[in-house]
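Re: Re: token formats

Sure, here are both.
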Amino acid sequence: MLNAKYWETRITASLFILITAFLCSCSSHKEDPYEVPCNGGIAKIETVHDSLHFLKFIRNDSLLSQWRLPYPVYRLDYGDLNGDGKDEIAVGVIKSTRFFKNKAKRLFIYNIDSHNQIRRLWMGSRAGSEIIDFRVERDSFPARVITQNVYEERMYPDSISKERLKGIRFKLAEFGLEFENYVIK
């Protein structure tokens, strides 16, 4: 009788530990904002420290390519921006440029070439004006970049108020982003 009570207590304790571990792992799992699916693999940002990151392209647990980003990174997104059937990678960094000396949010766009190497397509300094944030709109073909920008009152189009403007839609052109339209509420 003592032996049965001992095993019942051990099994109950083990079940409690397993269920607790399962629930903790489910509730604490969050999607990594610096890892996105891309061209049959994964594009991810690896942080070395706050001002040094690496954009990595991984397929089947093998590192195929990496690109050094010596800047703080604030966003990673992806989509077929040029309509070639392959995803491009959009990376938001914070840096100054030759023409804009203040550190601000910038948008860099990369692709994966036929040798699975990361190649830069566009290293943007601004998208119309200073960027607050961006996202890639993948439900259009080709995909579009939607930016939220800082605007002075005089820069708003006459037909759109500051309160109604959600962002600006851009398409990837031969060189950089080309204005397409305003996104309103």
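Second one below.
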Amino acid sequence: MSLIKNTIVLLLLTMLTISCDNDNDTRIMKIRINHHYITGVGIAPLLVYEVQEDNAIGSDTWTAFYTDIQGFNYVPGKIYDLTVKVSTIDNPPADGSSLRYNLVRIDNEQFVSPETQFDIELKRNGESYVTNTSGYSILNQIMLDCNVQCADLDFKLQNQDVVIGTFKRIGVSEIELVSLR
């Protein structure tokens, strides 16, 4: 009987050790998420977070972030400072990230003035992110008020390879075009 108990304990300890080995593939990091989405291209055009990570937080350097953060509910118009747990995905999908991000905590969230201006690429390498099925929008997700610049927006989208708009926020899912380049 004692031999069976010892074998079971040894087996359980081995399984525990093996299951803890995956902890080597996790780390905790800080992320700052900007107050607006930006456009990006994966398999298809999409809206992505603009972020700063770890030592880049507080700098002028922002990068596109294509992965969701589990447990985080983003609301445009706020800058978020987050602590996240990053873990490696063993067999990631061909079109997906090899990393999984889980929210540990929201360290800070700060509302941004609706008058704060920001840039979003509206067209890159011939790929337009602007749709006009029932009013102008970015990828049918963010309503775009082009005000008196709609004709200029249409012209630039048809005749330029790259179009960048400067915007200010009207609401959570609506922005106003301030200028184009």
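The longest helix spans residues 2-20. Helices lie at 2-20, 150-159.
- S.
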